[in-house]
Amino acid sequence: MSDVRNGPGTRSTGGVVRVVLVDDHMMFRSGVRAELAADASIEVVGEAADVEEAVRVVHGQRPDVVLLDVHLPGGRRRPGGRDVLERSVDLVGTATPVRFLALSVSDAAEDVIAVIRAGARGYVTKTISGPDLAAAVHRVAEGDAVFSPRLAGFVLDAFGTGAGEVATVDEELDRLSTREGEVMRLIARGYAYKEVAKELFISIKTVETHVSAVLRKLQLSNRNELTRWAADRRLL
User: Fold this and answer.
1) Along the 236 residues of the chain, how does pLDDT read in single tens digits?
2) Per 3-state DSSP, what percentage of the chain is helix, strand, and coil (rounded to 5)?
3) What residues are paired with 43 via a beta bridge?
4) What three-state secondary structure class fits 132?
5) Closest by alpha carbon to 42, among 135, 154, 168, 157?
6) Residue 93 region, left (φ>0) first, then alpha (ψ -120 to 50), else beta?
7) Do residue 107 and residue 211 come from a single domain?
8) Do 180 and 151 lie in a common domain?
């Protein structure tokens, strides 16, 4: 699915930042591409919708920056975006490194810390504006670390004090699929089914199905219990 303009593995000249978009929602990728098009010094050279495709495109294009969704289908580890990072580690330490900026709907501590530990240079949420996202891409390309304001504090705390143990494996959480985990967090934060559907680009009926599966797998009775369960694990 790559959209090649400069040729595989070719760095742009003249200060242009070459970007690969990795997200399983085509409409979201289209929106990001449109926002970044407003900045003439950013060029989107490829796209991918799952882990395997992302690894192929990133290795083939060797972009300056990869905008990486955290929860990708096809991953062997949670969150799926970690697989892309870990399978691209040979590109990170090169003379012209590929740098990763996580772009996700999730602002959960364990997701943020997991991808930062795997090698991402930053993490921003999908509520970011187009101009701010373009600025974040430039900063990451230059080697800076970039985080959404709410995330920066606990990332620093985690890496400064060892509190990052929130990222350790939770057997109950691992019962959930990637999509169920996304739905769980939004429902636990008080989102209505309609709001969850809009946020994740899925139908309300699909949200209902995922919520039922989450409650069954976690042996919970209602969303109030789910909120307490998530709060106890610092997932809110």
Assistant:
1) 333 334 444 444 458 999 999 999 999 999 999 999 999 999 999 999 999 999 999 999 999 999 999 888 876 666 678 889 888 877 776 767 899 999 988 877 778 878 888 888 899 988 889 999 999 999 999 988 888 877 766 566 555 544 444 444 456 777 888 788 889 988 888 889 998 898 888 999 999 999 999 999 898 988 888 888 887 776 76
2) 50, 10, 35
3) 18
4) helix
5) 135
6) alpha
7) no
8) no
Tokens of 53: 């495709």
* 186 and 144 assigned to the same domain: no
Place of tokens 């606990």: 154
Report strand pairing: 42-48 vs 17-22: parallel
CATH number for the domain that contains residue 216: 1.10.10.10
| Interior/surface letters 9-38, b for 16+ CB within 10 angstroms, e for the rest | eeebeeebbbbbbbbbbeebbeebbebbee
CA distance 44 to 17: 8
122 token code pair: 């930053």
Question: Structure pTM?
Answer: 0.64
- Look up the domain containing 74 and give its range: 17-161
Contact assessment for residue 166 and residue 110, using Cβ atoms and an 8 Å cutoff? yes
**Type of residue at 112:** V
